[in-house]
Amino acid sequence: MTTANFRVKTLALALTLALVGCGESTSSSQGEGFNNGGDQGVITNPTTFDEAGLVASLVDNVITPAYSLFYTQAQAQRTAIADYCALEQASIESSSEQALAAMSTAQNAWLDTMGAWQQVEVMQMGPLLSNSGELRNRIYSWPAISRCGIDQDVAYHQDGVINLDPNRPYDISTRTATRRGLFALQHVLFNPQYDHHCSIANEALADWNSLTELDRKVARCEYAVTAADDLIVSAEELLNKWQGDNGFAAQLKSAGEPNSQFENAHVALNHISDAMFYLTEMVKDKKLAEPIGILPNSCGTSACAEDVESLDAKSSLANIQANLLAFEALLVGQQQGQEALVGFDNYLDEEQATATKERMLQAISETKAAIAAIDSSLASALIDNEQQVRDVHTKVKAITDELKNDFINELALELPATSAGDND
């Protein structure tokens, strides 16, 4: 078993242990003609399936535990980074066994945190969509990235002011999304190039490349601790906006009631199903089709290893595995090894669409096998065995084809606006 596979399975187990029981719910109805006229909430041909119960099950047993796991991992990550950086700040020889072990622990903590986040990525709803995804981007800005910007912020953090201006004290909470969050932490923890990545150095970076490697490691570490603290703040904000009497989870579960923003349970369920299209727009297209060259990338239309998601950490395939775990959990309403709970699979069975369910589950299984067949990083596979990566893309496409066609049609759900024109 590869390290990536082990980490994904470990996170799945952690998520299972974090599960809580679902609350009471009331039945709702939907039908083949839902939203045909464009008026949200119009229902024809009602079914007896308990849509409100499904919403509650997914919220309580899948989504809330995923958000909670991310918060827990973010806290553990901060501890590991602080421990590692304490050694660097004490000028411990960077090649010593103690320092290398501490660095590895910090990097593994980041991998675990990223793995937990990659499951949340497939559950983007409510607070993660508000204000054009401001909170989501603050946590993880990819595919918008700026290595130069991160290097600048490392120098600003070290100086305590922005670009040597004493009237501009450094405060990470005011910085743009591409200079904070998980991608920034990956850059300072994994990137082996300690020279800055800016084509032109500003005043703060003027002498950066002439500093010793240890000095630059210490500066990166000090910034990493601050960035890890900032990530905890964002993770806690997500939980606060999700949980509680007035949280978004309660809005979903109280669909149809006077104080809910959702007119009925079917509309709430559609909001959850919209999140599952992350597999189409991000996994299939951004994480696979673009690096392969099926869609244009920074190399043109040929395979482009530098365009993979987690290039420095070499965890791009582990990210996709985590995305699949989350998608499958939403589909079946439970994590691996958990007793049977209510999921979309039960709804498909109720609507005489068991064949659709089985095709989706089979495609998920085949995608996992295609990923497991790659014994290197995604970037290396693009160079050494591009066909293996194309096989993964083909398998993911089989899932998304079912998702945006039979799955949506059988349950009378609507495609998200961003996927309406996706005909590949």
Automatic annotation (TrEMBL):
Signal peptide span: 1-23
Name of the protein this chain belongs to: Imelysin family protein
Compartment(s) where it occurs, according to its Swiss-Prot or TrEMBL record: Cell envelope
Coiled-coil residues: none
Ranges of residues in domain Imelysin-like: 63-402
Pfam families named among the record's database cross-references: Peptidase_M75
InterPro entries according to UniProt: Imelysin-like, Imelysin-like_IPPA, Imelysin_sf
Keyword vocabulary terms for this entry: Signal
